[in-house]
């Protein structure tokens, strides 16, 4: 219903005949009859006008036969002709056209989509919450082009990585800035802190052109989160409960043909018996205590001993030796049996109300999760309160959000401080983990007698090595605004965030029995190697406090066909971060985890970082006839972390938007083209990119000295009594450092077809970031390892396409489809100028719990960013692998080679919804491709011989495929005769599992079915007969139900990564396996 | 309305106040987390501590395998690079040694500069001597190295200087260091900026000991030159300078030993003990299980009735083993290696305790240098006396009970390479063999120097790893991969080429 209803009442006759002007009183309402405040009422062709008050009323002196231009953000604009009426009532219709959607842009400024000269996207609460996600960021995945959200891990409390339009900075932060109710959050803010039910919408500002008003932190784009406010009318209470179950979906592909053996040839056990582990023909015999699986084939008949002999007590107290015998067959689900079904339960309640002048919203949520790894739990409690109040020309809004989360995760194992997944994976196929759950009483499961001599029992680790932490997050903001006249608005917003985390990681002490220390297997099991293990504790706490104040003056004036809006403002912010850690590996009282019970000096560190910043900005929008918009902004910013001479820098931007369907009259009423807009803009922004070197990049101007060497576990050698010792830090800082500079431009179009049944948005962006802040790795002969330089340049360009299609729309049935595609091309143009150094390592493979691997994740000139560089087999010029003429083993070329980029070049998200009466089915699927992943799990599994690949040749000696022998330097002949010296452990453990990286690099492409939800809304007549229930919704939800990967990657989810930093591209045993979730929800509204 | 206006005028006013105040941004001037300048004494104490670490642990992690002291047990999979000598530029031990020594020298260079400013010749001189010591080790491992352009942050790609040039300049640096130490004699350097002698955790400010140390380092370098006739004139002139200087060498009871006050606490243990021995609470350290006795060494000590055998190596750990050898080892790389519980770890003499001083150049090492120098006629004195005194001091160092008597019984045996007269056919072989026997766990680089210079001990076994293709113990390390990556135009190809570890000689090698 788009007709304007004008109620006219005649004035006393005669007055209008004598007056040039007459007084008009009016009232503006929305379609539901709620009064609309702050509606602009402008007399066309003049600069005269007013705005409505909180009750939607206005008074204005108008000339005879004037036309009023009535406009309000989010509503369709109207022209109202005034003859001589003195009393009018106006109803504004909410915008239905895409172009009139309200977008919350930089600094909380609301604009209509038609005005914007840059790309944005809006995700509303319904889309976010359709699958009842616990973490808001997972609810965004696949729904916006150009937005890449990575879940680096599947543990109990993962942190996502959120990147818009690829990476710009080699080593700086590339993650999008998160803004909640106008308040910028700290770097690495975890969106999982929020209750997604409290979120009204997320506006995505994809590039720097739209974000430049935010200054140095906005070059990576912005996610603007707006939380819910109360709605006018009767109080609404919503209750919702969701229960989901999580189970392991994929494990690596294991071999189940060969049993345990680890390369032993002869050994003597603790009883003095000599064991020969090889048959006379050199083939291995079964070794009962091994973690490696390079033994003989399973016989399938009879039983074999598993693990060593253990000492147990008879009922009479005497001691006897006992042994465990198991069938000589591979265990069924021996690894998988460790994992359990996780359960997540979310209960949410909200209360919303409001009257003409005020609104109130209260939301609360309690979430409990148990993970797939035993003994891992997480709880989260949220309370969020929002209120608004209007009083005359004054209005106020406040938001308070509080979150408490409490996590219990599993720490490393006692043996080599390996993560839990290593201890689970490094078990030979004969071993079934479900049999060793009782690590306290089962003599073959205790640390003394665990059947796997070179691993810790993961059950023991899960219950005795704990990482517990809780955090308090408080976010408060107050916004006050004043509208003294129609053309002037003043507002001030103060925001405070206070985050505090307290962590305690403990590892239980182990006292090994003497019989176990004496090593009954002779294999050098952990009890013999360690003899005892002291209790350990790490206490860590941090507090971060951000204060932010933005002040805005908005001047808005119309002149005939033109209007101008000028926003002037300033911003002040301060961030303070404090952290402290204490640790001890030598606790003296078992079970008592307090640093005071540790012997010697505890390890410790303490850091404090401060950053202050202020800025002035100007933002001018010039409008012509509501179809042409020019938008110019500038920000002058000063930041304390930079050297005084470089503390100031500017962020100019300009963009243009042209709604050609409104401008060209022949297009106005086109049946095909509903609307069309083209836009474009550019900006130059700066990015303080020292954050990789320290929080906020603070204190990185002058060289520092470190306390004499950190020996282990954070413990410094110095001081010795009163004797101190210091050394130069390995980094040489740069007293002339300046920010990175990004030049960014974008252009695109939005169009709707067939009465908006089809909406298409497309844009292209091009960005170069130069002057990068690079901790350049320099010759150690300088005495340093790294020098901070401003150097290097990177290019990013790409296209984004968003298609929304209402395929079917009948009163009973609807079918909507959304397609979001982005292609990103990224290239490192230079690193160090006039220099042969053309690559920089941005992430090192963690060697502490892996067979050592050369290489890592690099930025390399001429390549996309970032790339995997690892060692490969030595090859002849034709690419054949060069084998050793004696051993037949391939030789390793330690010069690192590039094996592909790790960031996807193509991302496709598909959303579709089917609606039939009260029933709706929503699906979200996405594809990522064009990138590669280093699967370190494969190396780990080849090292221990459980990978399926390691049996492809039946563990037989082979002539390495396509190999050559070097007969003299540079001369190669095909290898037709030299078989590998060994096809078992010597080949797989020593060459694959420790030597070379390239066989484990695979395509990282995947398809995932991210979200499925089947929603049923009970018919209104049923529920309303209760007179107090408004609606009941029941839904079934599922996440990550299906993942499709290339055959070459049968290890794990390629979205996983060792880090949520820039150096993505390596999966490892530091993660746990991929999971799928499924469950149900009931929501009731009163 | 007017009242409300005033609030909003107040806020921007406040804002302008903040912005205009320069002080608002002055929050990052002082780093609260780490100092930006420290007294050079604090650098010196850490440098000495680090040199103790580098010398006792650093290269020993692979050289103790190559030099026949240690082996891997059957419980571990082989470290291919170490066991087949197929080391690459990314060989981790090479990377860490190169980085560590240059970094120590950066600190030492600042000690020298700041002490000079503070008119503190003692610390300037000590820093020069220590830098020379470190540079000489870099040459002995890599041959040509960045030297004249090193340690300059404004030159990110320092050129390499020829090894012989570096050696020549190091002699001058040692002379300069000695001169500065002498200048400190009687001088009052306790100005406000001066450092305290307690930072000298090697000689506690004893000037003569520093000079003797410098002369001994010179002697060590001169002995490395012994097989090069072209260096004869250098040897002659340096020896005459040592003679004219007059303080001589480190003598019995006065080794260069470092001790900052080690205590049995995490991170503060004597580094060798902490690395190869035990944790503060008595659990074996991670490397204790990995580094086991080498059968070549246990055979040598057993066959020569050497009581140091059970000081260098511990009894086998398994109480119930029927292994009749109290001390047992494997040959390195043996595919049939015995398991951990049947082999010996490092023993109480070699490990010392958590508070033992770390040897940089112990007295017996200096005495062995003097033995060889006397044998070559370079210095006055009886080589036999030096020889026996060196063995005695090794016995003392290793904590052999009644060391002097036990040593006498040992070197009196008529066994070739043990008794002096029994070894008359080849006294040099006896000196170097005994030096090898004494340097176990002390200074494996010196043992490697001797091997590369003289080929002694001649029967040092090769790894038994079946994949061994080049049957030769490497003579150098390849330049680190980091140097190839970061200083590519300067790094000499001779030190990075395939098989360079077997073919590319240190300049003083024959």
Helix-strand topology string of chain B: HHHEHHHEEHHHEHHEHHHEHHHHHHH
Oligomer: heterodimer
What percent of residues of chain B adopt helix (DSSP H or I)? 40-55%
Helical/strand content category of chain B: mainly alpha
Give the neighbour order of strands across the main sheet of chain B: 1-5
The helix tally of chain B amounts to 21
Number of strands of chain B: 6
Number of strands of chain A: 62
pLDDT < 50 stretches of chain B: 1-10, 189-193
Termini separation of chain A (Å)? 28 Å
Mean pLDDT of chain B: 90
Question: Can you count the helices of chain A?
Answer: 12
Structure description:
The complex is a heterodimer of chains A (1086) and B (510). Chain A has 1086 residues and is mainly beta. Chain A contains twelve helices and 62 strands. Chain A is elongated and about 120 Å long. Chain A starts with 14 loop residues before the first helix and ends with a strand. By secondary structure, chain B is mainly α. Chain B contains 21 helices and six strands. Chain B has helices at 2-20, 40-58, 60-66, 80-84, 92-117, 121-142, 163-184, 207-224, 232-245, 271-276, 286-290, 295-303, 309-312, 348-351, 363-375, 383-398, 403-411, 427-438, 444-454, 481-486, 500-503; strands at 70-71, 145-146, 160-161, 256-258, 292-293, 358-361. In chain B, α6 packs parallel to α8, α15 packs antiparallel against α16 and α16 packs across α17. Chain B is globular. The relative contact order of chain B is 0.14. Chains A and B meet through β18, β26, α7, β29 and β31 of A and α1, α2, α5, β2 and α20 of B.
């Amino acid at each position: 219903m788009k007709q304007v209803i004008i109620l006219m009442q005649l004035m006393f006759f005669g007055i209008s005949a004598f007056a040039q002007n007459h007084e008009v009183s009016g009232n503006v309402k929305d379609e539901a009859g709620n009064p609309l405040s702050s509606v602009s009422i402008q007399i066309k062709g003049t600069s005269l006008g007013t705005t409505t008050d909180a009750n939607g009323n206005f008074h204005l002196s108008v000339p005879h036969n004037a036309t009023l231009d009535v406009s309000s953000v989010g509503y369709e604009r109207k022209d109202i002709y005034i003859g001589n009426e003195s009393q009018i009532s106006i109803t504004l219709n909410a915008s239905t056209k895409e172009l009139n959607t309200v977008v919350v842009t930089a600094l909380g400024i609301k604009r209509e989509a038609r005005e914007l000269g840059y790309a944005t996207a809006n995700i509303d609460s319904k889309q976010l919450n359709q699958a009842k996600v616990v973490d808001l960021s997972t609810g965004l995945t696949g729904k916006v082009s150009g937005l890449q959200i990575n879940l680096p891990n599947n543990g109990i409390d993962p942190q996502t990585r959120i990147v818009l339009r690829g990476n710009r900075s080699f080593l700086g932060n590339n993650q999008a800035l998160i803004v909640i109710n106008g308040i910028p959050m700290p770097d690495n803010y975890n969106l999982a802190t929020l209750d997604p039910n409290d979120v009204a919408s997320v506006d995505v500002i994809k590039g720097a052109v739209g974000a430049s008003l935010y200054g140095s932190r906005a070059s990576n784009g912005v996610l603007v989160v707006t939380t819910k406010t109360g709605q006018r009318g009767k109080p609404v209470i919503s209750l919702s409960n969701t229960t989901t179950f999580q189970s392991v979906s994929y494990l690596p592909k294991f071999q189940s043909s060969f049993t345990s053996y680890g390369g032993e040839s002869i050994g003597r056990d603790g009883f003095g018996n000599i064991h020969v582990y090889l048959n006379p023909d050199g083939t291995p015999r079964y070794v009962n205590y091994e973690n490696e699986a390079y033994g003989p084939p399973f016989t399938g008949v009879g039983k074999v001993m598993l693990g060593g002999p253990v000492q147990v007590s008879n009922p009479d107290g005497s001691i006897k030796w006992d042994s465990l015998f198991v069938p000589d067959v591979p265990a069924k689900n021996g690894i998988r049996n460790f994992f359990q079904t996780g359960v997540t339960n979310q209960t949410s309640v909200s209360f919303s109300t409001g009257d003409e002048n005020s609104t109130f919203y209260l939301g609360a949520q309690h979430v409990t999760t148990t993970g797939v790894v035993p003994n891992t739990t997480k709880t989260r409690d949220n309370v969020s309160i929002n209120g608004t109040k209007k009083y005359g020309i004054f209005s106020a809004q406040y938001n308070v959000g509080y979150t408490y989360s409490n996590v219990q995760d599993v720490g490393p194992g006692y043996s080599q401080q390996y993560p839990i997944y290593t201890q689970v994976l490094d078990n030979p196929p004969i071993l079934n983990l479900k049999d060793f759950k009782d690590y306290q009483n089962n003599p073959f499961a205790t640390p003394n007698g665990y059947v796997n001599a070179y691993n810790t029992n993961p059950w023991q680790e899960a219950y005795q090595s704990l990482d517990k932490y809780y955090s308090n997050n408080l976010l408060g903001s107050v916004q006050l605004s004043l509208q003294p006249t129609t053309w002037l608005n003043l507002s001030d917003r103060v925001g405070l965030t206070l985050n505090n985390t307290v962590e305690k990681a403990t590892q239980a002490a182990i006292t090994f029995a003497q019989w176990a220390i004496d090593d009954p297997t002779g294999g050098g099991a952990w009890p013999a190697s360690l003899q005892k293990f002291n209790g350990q504790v790490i206490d860590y706490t941090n507090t971060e406090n951000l204060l932010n104040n933005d002040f805005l003056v908005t001047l808005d004036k119309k002149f005939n066909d033109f209007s101008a809006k000028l926003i002037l403002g300033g911003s002040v912010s301060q961030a303070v971060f404090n952290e402290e850690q204490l640790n001890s590996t030598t606790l003296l009282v078992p079970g008592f985890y307090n640093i005071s019970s540790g012997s010697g000096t505890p390890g410790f560190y303490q850091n404090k970082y401060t950053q202050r910043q202020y800025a002035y900005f100007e933002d001018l929008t010039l409008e012509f006839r509501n179809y042409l918009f020019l938008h110019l902004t500038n920000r002058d910013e000063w930041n304390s972390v930079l050297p005084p001479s470089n503390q100031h820098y500017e962020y100019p931007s300009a963009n243009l938007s042209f709604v050609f369907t409104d401008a060209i009259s022949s297009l106005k009423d086109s049946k095909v083209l509903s609307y069309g807009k083209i836009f474009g803009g550019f900006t130059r922004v700066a990015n303080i990119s020292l954050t990789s070197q320290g929080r906020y990049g603070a204190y990185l101007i002058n060289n520092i000295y470190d306390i004499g060497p950190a020996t282990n576990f954070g413990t410094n050698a110095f001081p010795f009594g009163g004797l101190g010792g210091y050394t130069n830090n390995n980094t040489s800082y740069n007293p002339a450092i300046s920010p990175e500079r990004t030049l960014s431009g974008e252009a695109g179009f939005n169009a709707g077809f067939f009465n908006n049944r089809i909406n298409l948005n497309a844009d292209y962006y091009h960005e170069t970031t130069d002057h990068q802040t690079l901790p350049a790795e320099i010759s150690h002969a300088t005495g340093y390892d790294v020098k901070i330089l401003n150097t290097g340049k990177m290019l990013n360009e790409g296209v984004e396409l968003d298609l929304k299609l209402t395929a079917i729309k009948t009163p009973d049935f609807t079918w909507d489809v959304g397609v979001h595609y982005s292609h990103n091309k990224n290239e490192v143009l230079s690193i160090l100028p006039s220099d042969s150094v053309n690559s920089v390592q941005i992430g090192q493979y963690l060697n502490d719990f892996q067979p050592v691997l050369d290489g890592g994740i690099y930025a390399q000139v001429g390549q996309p960013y970032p790339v995997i560089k690892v060692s490969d087999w030595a090859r002849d010029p034709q690419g054949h692998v060069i084998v050793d003429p004696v051993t037949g083993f391939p030789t390793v070329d330690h010069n690192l080679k590039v094996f592909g980029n790790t960031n996807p070049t193509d991302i496709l998200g598909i959303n579709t919804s089917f609606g039939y009466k009260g029933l709706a089915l929503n699906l979200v699927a996405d594809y990522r491709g064009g990138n590669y992943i280093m699967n370190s799990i494969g190396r780990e599994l080849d090292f221990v011989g459980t990978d399926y690949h390691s049996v492809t040749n039946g563990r037989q000696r082979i002539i390495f495929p396509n190999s050559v022998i070097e007969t003299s330097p540079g001369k190669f002949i095909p290898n037709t005769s030299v078989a590998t010296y060994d096809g078992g452990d010597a080949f797989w453990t020593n060459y694959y599992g420790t030597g070379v990286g390239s066989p484990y690099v695979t395509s990282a492409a995947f398809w995932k079915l991210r979200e499925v939800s089947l929603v049923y809304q009970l018919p209104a007549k049923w529920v309303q007969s209760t007179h107090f229930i408004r609606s009941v919704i029941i839904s079934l939800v599922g996440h990550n139900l299906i993942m499709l990967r290339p055959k070459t990657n049968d290890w794990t989810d390629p979205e996983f990564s060792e880090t949520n930093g820039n150096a993505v591209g390596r999966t490892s045993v530091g993660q746990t396996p991929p999971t799928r979730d499924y469950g149900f929800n009931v929501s009731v509204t009163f | 309305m007017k009242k409300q206006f005033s609030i909003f005028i107040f806020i921007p006013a406040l804002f302008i106040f903040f912005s205009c105040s320069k002080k608002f941004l002055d929050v990052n001037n002082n780093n609260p987390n780490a100092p930006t300048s420290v007294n050079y004494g604090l650098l010196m104490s850490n440098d000495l501590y680090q040199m103790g670490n580098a010398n006792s642990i650093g290269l020993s992690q692979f050289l103790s395998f190559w030099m026949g002291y240690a082996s891997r047990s059957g419980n571990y999979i082989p470290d291919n690079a170490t066991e087949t000598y197929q080391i690459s530029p990314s060989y981790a031990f090479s990377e860490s040694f190169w980085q560590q020594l240059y970094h120590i020298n950066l600190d030492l260079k600042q000690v020298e500069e700041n002490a000079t400013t503070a008119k503190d010749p003692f610390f300037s001189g000590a820093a020069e001597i220590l830098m020379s010591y470190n540079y000489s080790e870099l040459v002995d491992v890599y041959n040509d190295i960045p030297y004249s352009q090193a340690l300059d942050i404004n030159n990110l790609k320092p050129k390499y200087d020829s090894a012989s040039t570096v050696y020549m300049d190091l002699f001058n640096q040692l002379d300069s260091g000695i001169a500065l130490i002498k200048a400190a004699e009687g001088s009052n350097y306790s100005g406000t900026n001066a450092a305290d002698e307690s930072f000298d955790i090697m000689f506690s400010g004893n000037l003569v000991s520093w000079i003797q140390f410098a002369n001994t380092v010179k002697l060590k370098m001169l002995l490395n030159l012994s097989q090069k006739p072209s260096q004869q004139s250098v040897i002659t002139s340096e020896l005459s300078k040592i003679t004219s200087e007059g303080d001589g060498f480190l003598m019995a009871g006065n080794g260069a030993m470092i001790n900052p006050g080690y205590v049995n606490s995490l991170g503060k243990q004597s580094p060798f003990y902490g690395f190869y021995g035990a944790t503060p609470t008595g659990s074996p350290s991670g490397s204790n299980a990995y580094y086991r006795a080498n059968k070549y060494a246990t055979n040598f000590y057993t066959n020569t009735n050497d009581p140091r055998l059970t000081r260098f190596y511990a009894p086998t750990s398994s109480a119930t083993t029927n292994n009749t050898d109290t001390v047992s080892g494997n040959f390195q790389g043996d595919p049939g290696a015995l398991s951990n519980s049947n082999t010996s770890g490092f023993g109480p003499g070699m490990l010392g305790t958590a508070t033992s001083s770390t040897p940089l150049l112990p007295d017996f090492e200096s005495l062995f240098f003097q033995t060889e120098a006397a044998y070559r006629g370079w210095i006055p004195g009886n080589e036999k006396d030096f020889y026996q005194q060196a063995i005695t001091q090794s016995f003392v160092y290793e904590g052999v009970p009644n060391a002097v008597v036990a040593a006498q019984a040992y070197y009196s045996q008529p066994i070739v390479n043990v008794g002096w007269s029994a070894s008359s056919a080849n006294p040099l072989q006896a000196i170097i063999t005994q030096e090898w026997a004494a340097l176990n766990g002390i200074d494996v680089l010196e043992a490697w120097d001797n091997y590369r210079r003289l080929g002694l001990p001649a029967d040092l076994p090769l790894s038994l790893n079946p994949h061994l293709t080049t049957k030769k113990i490497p003579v150098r390390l390849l330049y680190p991969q980091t140097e190839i990556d970061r200083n590519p135009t300067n790094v000499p190809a001779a030190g990075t080429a395939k098989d360079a570890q077997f073919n590319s000689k240190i300049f003083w090698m024959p």
